[in-house]
Design goal:
alpha/beta, DNA recombination-mediator protein A, Rossmann fold, 6-stranded parallel β-sheet
Length: 167
């Protein structure tokens, strides 16, 4: 049985090298699944904490799981370097995350999406998040269609995309 191996193009390698060598702060989007084991949440929290300590501005969405861990780590490091863009209004967010979101300095609500399903609103929200960043770090399952679509769209926009799979 043969295995297909994707070999990065020279253009892709040059883009990744430029991103690694870039000095100064970057705008990095961190997105991921709501259903994340606690150990993974702790790792994501540490990563976001370290990225903010490094002077990077993080952009994420608001919810439980991955996004909550990103918010927690970034808030501990420097709340001014975190922007949270909600797919809908704050009132439409899970009750358990509203208290955390209420402490975020740079919180963007998309109340015009309240009439949409969460999936539709999340797709629009993820596009906005990607448009505001230079790099996307995503934590997903192989069945996380919205997140995988977001990664594909970010790559089409020539953003540096790092995708971690939970499964």
């Amino acid at each position: 049985m043969s295995q297909v191996v994707n070999i990065p193009t020279l253009d892709t390698l040059a883009q990744e090298l430029a991103a690694i060598q870039q000095t100064g702060s970057k705008r990095i989007a961190l997105l991921g699944s709501r259903h994340v084991p606690i150990t993974h949440q702790q790792l994501i929290e540490m990563m976001s904490y370290a990225l903010v300590l490094g002077g990077n501005h993080l952009v994420t969405s608001g919810a439980t799981g991955t996004n909550s861990a990103v918010i927690k780590g970034a808030m501990r490091a420097d709340p001014n370097l975190l922007t949270v863009i909600l797919p809908q209004s704050l009132d439409r967010q899970p009750r358990e995350s509203r208290n955390q979101l209420g402490q975020v300095i740079h919180l963007v609500e998309n109340t015009e999406n309240d009439s949409l399903s969460l999936g539709e609103a999340s797709t629009i929200c993820n596009r906005e998040i990607v448009s505001r960043c230079q790099q996307l770090i995503c934590f997903a399952f192989h069945e996380s269609h919205t997140l995988l679509q977001t990664c594909a769209e970010a790559e089409e926009q020539r953003k540096l995309v790092t995708l971690f799979y939970f499964d």
